[in-house]
Amino acid sequence: MQIITTHRNTDFDGFASLVAAKLIYPDAVAAVPRAVNANVRAFMSIHKEVFDYMERQDVAIDRVSRLIVVDTADWNRLGPLAQLRRRPDLEVCMWDHHVGGDIDASWKCQEAVGATITLLVRELKALRKPITPVQATLFLAGLYEDTGNLTFSSSTAEDAYAAGWLLDHK
Question: Is residue 57 over pLDDT 90?
Fold first, then answer.
């Protein structure tokens, strides 16, 4: 079983990255933490029939063979899934815009850009994956939240290019 997950207290970049990763890894199950920011929970409630995910606490940990982590590089932010750290047979893929962390991933895309969704948008574009207007809106919310509407000093030109591409898909 392949699982995609993100950090507890999930913000829009975390949830958007989870949804984008599901497009890249269609056979994986998106597992959302119980603790989600209120604004994200409201968005999820409004669009509950649009996004396919399960609650992270319902994951059968012993069945996980591949863990895809988005928007964090720290095991301690993965709640009960952190116990997978001890599994030598586990394949871990990581997408994150935070430099550092203690997840030693088998494969990773970890770059200092303003938002993790920027990295996933790059891959969606390369794979020519179609996205819906609701997905584009969610991805923009994640990008804008983590970059302060592209005003934070951590914002990069690639974040702005990703925003432009997403605006073309709204």
Answer: no
